[in-house]
Task: structure prediction
Amino acid sequence: MTQDEMKQAVAKAAIEYVEAGTIIGVGTGSTANFFIDELAKIKHKIDGTVASSIASAERLKGHGIEVFDLNNVNEISVYIDGADETNRHLHLVKGGGGALTREKIVAAASKKFVCIADDSKLVDVLGKFPLPVEVIPMARSFVARELVKLGGEPVLREGFTTDNGNVILDVHNMEIMEPTKLEQTLNNITGVVTNGLFAIKPADVLLLGGQDGVKVLD
Ligand code: 5RP
Result:
């Protein structure tokens, strides 16, 4: 099975978590795109979606799936999204696609977060994948200096602006032994909008695709 086939397999498996007659939170990235394509096949069963990025909203609309503004929605039954890294506690690193802030908002507003990933994303210790941090542009240098003090090597994602008009610092060489603590510490740096750690509120379920099929971790 190729990596794309594994992504497709977890995207298909995630359909089991879609409750009829509810609104579904939809993530961003190549795995989430496979999920959107699967969701399109049962679109008549759901009430609509909330998307975590402009790109996902466009893909959903392209399939004729309704996309609501989060402010106009009372409840999201489940949020389905990929990850750049996950550990066995379902703590995640996200934001490789730059959508981390809206992803964290939609995940927070959802009753359940189902993460879908191929097994190359499973690690013992988070941090090999550079940790994305979304920053208000005028605070870029200040935040970068604070990140260096924490032992990281921040690199500006060149030529990239988030859907919220901000920049991303990708922090290299962080061995993240205490994800919850680091998430809190980074949240407390003035000028940081969001960091890509999902540890304070981890995924509730992880569907992990491998050569032997899809494993469920929860
Ligand atoms: C986007 C994300 C994605 O979930 C993450 O980058 C994984 O992407 P892919 O499914 O393409 O491997 O956090 O901001």
